[in-house]
Amino acid sequence: VKNRLRVLRAIHDLTQAELAERLQVSRQTINALETGRYDPSLPLAFRLARVFGVPVEEVFQDDASQDKTRLRINSRQH
Amino acid sequence: MSKKHLSQQKHVWAGQWPYLTATVFASVLAVLLLFTGPKGQVNLPATSLLAALPIIDALRQLQLYRRSDEYQRTVLLKSVALTALLIMAALLIVALVAAASVSEQVAPLTLIAIYLGGYALFLLTHWALTRQDAQE
């Protein structure tokens, strides 16, 4: 699962520590999420989306669904 | 780092001090009893205290696990899994070596060394994984 956490955090001008504090998790957790080493649980994913005020799909994208979208775009272009 | 973030980190470590104090106290007392106790026979009080150390630490780990967030738990479990794997492998090797020699016995110090080595490995792995996250 890929995520846009770093981008969304930059848009909202939050440091990793500030985001961690809002979510009541450690900064290590935010770092592990951003670097893609860890996929969060559903409750944490929803809490993240709520902090940024976006649907959860805007924060996390499934690799498979991304591939499908890419294939669809490619087939339309050809 | 904000004060609130520090307090979150403190929350994780806050419950550790009673266990760490008990560990240090039991260790020092056990060593003292070993040196001052009777020689040439089993020193029951010292042995009991030494046997209590892993139990105290298991309780500390349990506390740490309960207070950690979901990612910190996976780090803790990874360290435990690696340590358990290597201790089991080491014990198997020692058992096979002991079984191969007809009259030799495995020195108790070997088993103690495996336990202490395994525990050191656990602490090192956990520290390394946590430090890696903190630095990136």
State the gist of this model:
The complex is a heterodimer of chains A (78) and B (136). By secondary structure, chain A is mainly alpha-helical.
Task: Indicate the topology.
The complex is a heterodimer of chains A (78) and B (136).
Chain A: E1 2-3, H1 5-11, H2 16-23, H3 27-34, H4 42-52, H5 56-59, E2 60-61, H6 63-77
Antiparallel strand pairs in A: 1-2
Chain B: H1 3-14, H2 17-36, H3 44-67, H4 70-100, H5 108-135
Helix pairs in contact in B: 2-3, 4-5
Overview of this protein structure:
- The complex is a heterodimer of chains A (78) and B (136).
- Chain A is mainly alpha-helical.
- Helices cover 68% and strands 5% of the residues of chain A.
- Chain A is built from six helices and two strands; from the N terminus they run βαααααβα.
- A two-stranded antiparallel sheet of chain A has the order 1-2.
- In chain A, helix 2 crosses helix 3.
- The model of chain A has no long low-confidence stretch (mean pLDDT 86).
- Chain B is mainly alpha-helical.
- Chains A and B meet through helix 2 and helix 3 of A and helix 1, helix 4 and helix 5 of B.
List descriptors:
heterodimer, A: mainly alpha, two-stranded antiparallel ribbon, elongated, B: 136 residues, mainly alpha, 5 helices, 0% strand
Global outline of chain B: flat
Q: Strand sequence of the main sheet of chain A, in spatial order?
A: 1-2
Any low-confidence stretches of chain A, pLDDT <50, length ≥5? none
Distance between the termini of chain B: 15 Å
Integer average pLDDT of chain B = 82
